Amino acid sequence: MNEPLTPGISAIQQDRQVCLVCNMDSSISENPEICPCCHSDIAPRIKRSQQKTWALLITAMIFIIPANVYPITYLLKNSTLYPDTIYSGLITLIRNDQEGIALIVFIASILVPIFKILALAFIALTVHFRWQLNPKKQFIAFSIVEWVGRWSILDLFVISIMVAVFDKGSLVSVYPGIAATSFTIVVITTLFAAESFDTRLIWDSNNNAK
Amino acid sequence: MDTIICNHCDMVSTRPILRSGQVAKCPRCHRAFFKTNTLKANKMFALAITALILIIPAFTFPLMSIHLLGITEGANLLQGALMMIEGAPVVTFVILFCAVLVPTLLTLCIAYSSASIMLGKRPPLLGYVLKLTSSLIHWSMLDVYLISLLVSAVKITSDADVYFSSGLCFFVVLLIVNITLISEYSSTKYWKYLRNE
Ligand SMILES: [Zn+2]
Ligand SMILES: [Zn+2]
């Protein structure tokens, strides 16, 4: 049917592309736009991958500021409204001797979003400027970003549980603040940034990739 | 010679012949290509139906309740998200998407595709269902939700008494079934079936 491919070399150099939807490979020159198997859009590399990743990363970098500065929740107690930012919430947890939970919240809400943005930006820069770093190590860093990324949604789930538990009817109630929306935007944009980044570019930009 | 191309690094390698229980990995980036043992379609279908039955109590029964100054209040997953729809609609949408919509749609998709194999049919919709499955599969976050629930419970103990409720049992079983479905789902296998290979 097709010309046999040579193992050990990238498929793009042998006029072959893989469809990311159905996993079938096809000839690049014969199928420039549509996968012959599942009829999805196809390209040897995700189109404008770098631009999409940067646009999403910059959005995340902007929204991470209000997410940390403004109140993420309000606590209404004895008709007084107490605002809480991510940071002040952490301090409260430590004061209440809940260091374990404080650590989980610190990792999910502060460390993971910052790590994701910095790591993805670094990998994207390495690819763009062809810095010739070890592709395997870059890919491991990317895999960590990918795996750890979904956990940053933890704090949003926690807020929704708190809001439901401390209902309007009772003496204490919880409301989401502006930072909750900003934080959601950070989580979503970083998840999409990782999804739109084409990891094959890591090897493409390496001169002696093996 | 039969070759395979890696999705993650684009390297061509020889397709290995696996003994049962082995996993094929890309020699360049070490990501898994495929496993030998994936569940048969009838088992996948049974799991998907189990998940669909569990979804209703897991999302609507109270997961936990608190006892504060003589008042007991329960909270379920849907309530938690929907109560913020006025103050923070974006947050509500994202929570509903990752914790309710994706797990439900994903289960429906797997039920549909495994039933197609079981009945030996290739309905025209199957291609779309498989496409939808591949775009949803990374967005199911029930595991994160369970940890969030535990974090919230510990947080609340400083203000009130916390009790876990009946919905939690359904939720935990749903989570186990959901994780099994996702890890046993092999998109390649279903696409091959659709192409009649
Ligand atoms: Zn395809
Ligand atoms: Zn690879």
Radius of gyration of chain A: 22 Å
Cα-to-Cα separation, first versus last residue of chain B? 18 Å
Structural class of chain B: alpha+beta
- Under CATH at level 1, the class of the largest domain in chain A stands as Mainly Alpha
Please work out how many helical segments of chain B DSSP would assign.
Answer: 7
Which key features would you list for this structure?
heterodimer; A: about 210 residues; mainly alpha; Butyryl-CoA Dehydrogenase, subunit A, domain 3; three-stranded antiparallel beta sheet; two-stranded antiparallel sheet; about 55% helix; about 10% strand; elongated; B: about 200 residues; alpha+beta; 7 strands; about 15% strand; binds zinc ion
Walkthrough of the structure:
The complex is a heterodimer of chains A (about 210) and B (about 200). Chain A contains seven helices and five strands; from the N terminus they run ββαββααααβαα. In chain A, strand 3 and strand 4 (about 80-85) form a beta hairpin. The relative contact order of chain A is 0.16. Chain A is mostly helical. In chain A, about 55% of the residues lie in helices and about 10% in strands. Chain A has helices at about 50-70, 85-95, 100-130, 135-150, 155-165, 180-195, 200-205, and strands spanning about 15-20, 25, 75, 80-85, 170-175. In chain A, helix 1 (about 50-70) packs antiparallel against helix 3, helix 1 runs antiparallel to helix 6 and helix 3 (about 100-130) crosses helix 6. In chain A, the strands form two sheets. Chain A has a three-stranded antiparallel beta sheet with strand order 4-3-5. Chain B has about 200 residues and is α+β, with helices and mostly antiparallel strands. Chain B folds into two domains: about 1-35, no CATH class; about 40-195, Butyryl-CoA Dehydrogenase, subunit A, domain 3. Chain B is built from seven helices and seven strands; from the N terminus they run ββββαββααααβαα. Chain B has helices spanning about 40-60, 75-80, 90-120, 125-135, 140-155, 165-185, 185-195; strands at about 5, 10-15, 25, 30-35, 65-70, 70-75, 160-165. Chain B has a three-stranded antiparallel beta sheet with strand order 6-5-7. A two-stranded antiparallel sheet of chain B has the order 1-2. In chain B, strand 3 and strand 4 (about 30-35) form a beta hairpin. In chain B, helix 1 runs antiparallel to helix 3, helix 1 packs antiparallel against helix 6 (about 165-185) and helix 4 (about 125-135) packs antiparallel against helix 7 (about 185-195). Chain B is elongated. The two termini of chain B are about 20 Å apart. The mean pLDDT of chain B is about 90. The interface between A and B is large, with 70 and 62 residues. The complex binds zinc ion (2 copies). One zinc ion binds near residues 21, 24, 35, 38 and 40 of chain A.
